[in-house]
Amino acid sequence: VNERLAELGISLPEPPAPVAAYVPFVQTGNLVFIAGQVCFIGDDRSLSGKVGKTLSVDQGYQAARNSALNTIAQLKAACDGNLDRVKRCVSLRVFIASPGEFTDHPIVANGASDLVGEVFGEAGKHARAAVGAPALPLDCAVEVESVWEID
Q1: What pLDDT score does 115 carry?
Q2: DSSP track, 73-84
């Protein structure tokens, strides 16, 4: 997987520290549950706000992709640095800050799904929910929660 990341020109960010009373991931058996990962990379807060109001669908797509990058960074930590332990992405739950009339949640969520597929190939095929929310933590545009199977 590290070779695939390099081929794609992707550098994983540092896994973000939790901002409240939770841990970034929990492993039970062969499943790893990654806590919701927001779309901010480092100190960059440019993707804050609501998709369909202050951000475009394209910006929302990028926000979902960023959330997936943070997710993979947490997953790498959960795998003791070895992403080759990943057997499959089981599911993604993509939360999108948006006004009530917004309906392009699946397009935005594709930002996360597409990245997972690019990085993990067949093992990246997953179940998914794309859900609108009136607000998300830290005024982020997208948050992704996920479940992974590892060996």
Answers
A1: 98
A2: HHHHHHTTT-GG
